[in-house]
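Q: Sequence in, structure out?
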Amino acid sequence: MSYKRIMLKLSGEVFSGKHEGGIDRTALDAVAKTIASVAKNGAQLVVVVGGGNIWRYRDMKQSGIDRPVSDGMGMLATIMNSVALQSALEHHGCHTRVLSSVDVPQLAEPYIRRRAIRHLEKKRVVICAGGTGSPYFTTDSAAALRALELSCDIVLKATDVDGIYDKDPQKFKDATMYKELSYQEAIEKRLEVMDQSAFSLCRDQKLPIRVFNFFKKGALMDAAKGKKVGTLVC
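A: Exactly. Output:
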C-alpha cells in the first residue's frame, strides 16, 4: 500500500443498489467485500458513510422540517448505514468499530480521537458515524475533518463516475474528465463532487483527495496503492 492510513468517503447511495433508497443486502455485501480486501492488504482504513439512501436535507426540503432537525435525522441515517456496514465487514472477517459523533451507546462507541487511533493501530477498520455531530455540515466535511484529526494520508472519495468532470458526464456526452486539479481550481470552478468546506479544509492542510469510481472493479485497491485512477486534487 502506498498510504499507511486512508480516509474512504462513501455516499449512502452505494448501499441501495438498484433501489431508490434503503439498504440492499447484495449491494451492502459487495461494498463490504471491496473494503475488506483493502484492509486485509495492510492499509489502516477510516470510513465515513453518508445517509442519502435514507434521509438527506437537500432531498427533503419540501418536508417542512427545520434544517437543524432534518440534519439530525441525516446523522441518524449515517449511523444506520455505519452499523450495517460494520456487520457486513465482520462477516468478511474484518474487525470493525463504529465511533459516533452522536451519542448512541447501544450501537456505537463515542467518537474520541485517541480511541479511534488505537483501533487503527490494532488493524481495525474505523467507521466514523454521525457526521460532525452538528447541523449545516455535510458528511464530506466530516470526512475531511476526521481525516485531518486522524492523520490520514489521503481522502479517497468514492463516486459512481470515473472522476471529476467539467460538467455532469451523465447529462453531457462531451464532458471532459480532469486527471489532476489544484484545490483552488476545484473551489473556483465550484465542482460539486465535494462541498466547498471539505475542499477548503483539505487545501489548508494540504491533504490530497482522489475521486474515483467505486463500482469499477479493482478501483479502490488501485487508489489505495497510489495508482493514477480517477482525479487527484492536490
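The chain has one domain: 5-233.
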